[in-house]
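Input.
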Amino acid sequence: MNLGVGVRGKDVQALMQALGKSGGPQAYSIDERGSVEEILYSEAVAAAVSSFQEKYKSEILTPTGLQNATGYVGVATRAKLNKLYGCGVGSMPIQRSSVKVISPNGGEAWKVGENYQLVWSQYIAQGDKNHGKQITFRRFDKVTGKELLPIFFNLPGEGTADATSVGWTPTIGVTADGIVKLDDPNIMYKMHVELTTRVFEMGTPNFVSDDSDTAFTITSQ
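Output.
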């Protein structure tokens, strides 16, 4: 598919990822609520394509008799992109920032007073930036399954950009925010991690999150 100013869609996203690899503007991930169909081949993208064409002028422009870059992705430009990156522009995967809860991920029976590691993995897509994270324990009634008010934590190190784990010791009694007694036998929990990124091209917030696959419990010794 040939690409020019005004075109939208996943092929434009893939093109921007390729330009980022070649030293051009970085591609950006799309807010999980958005659509790749909204990605626009703008004048800025055209300028980056022109720079790429000039960089490989002898292979892209000269063989077709062109003296100056066009900012348009035709056969020669597309062929060079494919040669450099080993795949068609249209087939490049769209990479999004993500976070994945590792532990507790469900089925654990944690004890009050013992130390545990809250663990997650995270991936920051090209063009996004890690602006920190928030750890929450979602609460559920064991009998009805109804979701209750969550517990918000402010644990040392949880907001550090590169952190993927933090130590935590469940304690007896009501939490600091006065919401819940952690060792309540009628409550099940899921850990929720929310990662805040920023889409540089659009300048809008982007939130990605994950939960424990299934619930876990916290009980007294």
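The chain has two domains: 10-91, 98-219.
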